[in-house]
Design goal:
Length: about 325
């Protein structure tokens, strides 16, 4: 057990597999004890069939939580052993149904004493522990149904990496980066327009001198993202010129810099933050909704590519 103590939670899957292998090995010995010629891996499929009921492979797979190919393989093995019989559906000949054979029914009856003894033994073993393994397994199955372990690890990876992201105020040294990042994403999907050139070539004149702000996202000290707040006549701000380097995708930088800009606008007492985008940019639209923006109607846009307007109103 020292190995698992050293590796910790990282080896959860390996430790569960080790426990599963121990249980399977001992289950095989228990079948021998009761002189039941059944492999442990067959039990879920075999036991899902009542003495008088027939089921499709799809129904069995759904009931026991196995894949269709896995159930199909076990069905073939059980049929070869003579425990079940297969037949075509009466209304749909493409669908296979299975039911217990006379030998299978006899084996199921023979297993009853074994099932009673195993259940009693496990219940007594559980009373010797501080934790109810059966309930714990059910809790974990529910947790992983709600959110997979992969998704949970992805979130932790993003959280850890986002801690290395720093949002800084724009200075002239970032002008080329500001332009490059925006031109890179714009030309990937659309074309540069006159308003783009004005804001990107002269950010001081067209954004900062008019009461706006520009922020740069640094990842491990390297500039990888940018976003601007452009002052609007009603005292609000337009969230504009948000861009993230393709090499930094997946770090949550768009969310971090967008949230930073929103909090800046809020701290200045702005009534709202407004933006324009294009509905073909599904990840971007999803990000804006996550930041709290909702679809709105605004004045005609100076950009040909804009076909949706959104705003976040501060209450």
């Amino acid at each position: 057990m020292d190995f698992y103590d050293r590796t910790g939670k990282m080896a959860l899957g390996s430790r569960l597999r080790r426990l599963s292998e121990q249980m399977t090995e001992q289950a095989a010995a228990i079948y021998d004890l009761y002189q039941v010629d059944l492999q442990p891996k067959w039990f879920p499929v075999f036991y899902s069939l009542s003495p008088t009921e027939e089921k499709s492979i799809t129904d069995i797979a759904r009931e026991i939580g196995h894949t269709h190919p896995s159930v199909s393989q076990i069905v073939r093995e059980l049929a070869a052993k003579g425990y079940i019989v297969e037949k075509k559906g009466e209304t749909d000949g493409r669908k296979n149904f299975v039911c217990l054979s006379p030998t299978g029914r006899q084996t199921r009856e023979k297993m009853q004493a074994q099932l009673d003894d195993v259940t009693s033994a496990i219940e007594k073993a559980m009373k010797e522990t501080h934790h109810d393994l059966w309930k714990a397994i059910a809790e974990w199955e529910h947790l992983l149904d709600q959110k997979t372990l992969l998704r949970r690890v992805q979130e932790e990876k993003k959280r850890r990496e986002s801690e290395q992201v720093k949002i800084v105020e724009y200075t002239p040294v970032y002008q080329e980066v500001f332009r490059r990042l925006n031109e890179e994403w714009i030309t990937r999907f659309f074309r540069m327009e006159e308003s783009d050139y004005k804001a990107l070539d002269h950010p001081q004149e067209y954004i900062l001198d008019k009461g706006g702000y520009i922020y740069i996202a640094l990842y491990k000290g390297e500039p990888v993202g940018a976003c601007a707040l452009i002052a609007m006549p009603d005292g609000g701000f337009e969230l504009a010129k948000m861009a993230v380097s393709p090499q930094a995708q997946g770090l949550g930088i768009g969310y971090l810099i967008g949230r930073h800009c929103i909090e800046k606008a809020r701290s200045l007492g702005a009534p709202r933050v407004y933006l324009e985008s294009n509905t073909t940019l599904k990840p971007a639209i999803s990000l804006y909704y996550k930041l709290g923006f909702r679809k709105a109607a605004g004045p005609p846009s100076p950009y040909e590519r804009a076909n949706i307007q959104m705003e976040l109103i501060f209450s």
